[in-house]
Amino acid sequence: MATDGESVVGVDGYGRVGRTDIASGRFQIAGRIDMGLHMFGGAISANADRFTFIRGAPEVEVWSLDGGVGAEADAKAATGSPLTSQVELSDDGSRLATIADGRIYVGTVVPAGKASKTTLLAGAGPETSRIRFASSSRLVSAAGSAVALWDLNQEGRLRTSVAATLTGDCNACAAPPVAVSPDGDKAVLVPTSGFDTVDFRTGKVRSWLDEDEDEDEDDDAAAEALTESSVVVWLDDERLFAYSPEEGRAWILGGAGLDRVEETMSAPRMSQTAAAPGVLTDDGRVAVVLDKQYLVIDPATGEGETGDIPNAVASSADGRFVLSKQGNAESTGYEIYDARSGQIVYQGAEKVLPVVGRIGDSAVVLAASPTREARAGFDIVRLDPGKASRVIGRTGSHSTAYVERDGYLYVEGRGEILRYSMTDGSRSTVLSIVSAPAQANPVGIAADGTVVVASESEKKFIQSTANPDRWVELACSLAGRPLAAEDVAGVVDSTGGMTPGCGSTLPD
Question: Which backbone phi and psi does 498 adopt, to 5 degrees?
Answer without folding.
Answer: -90, 150
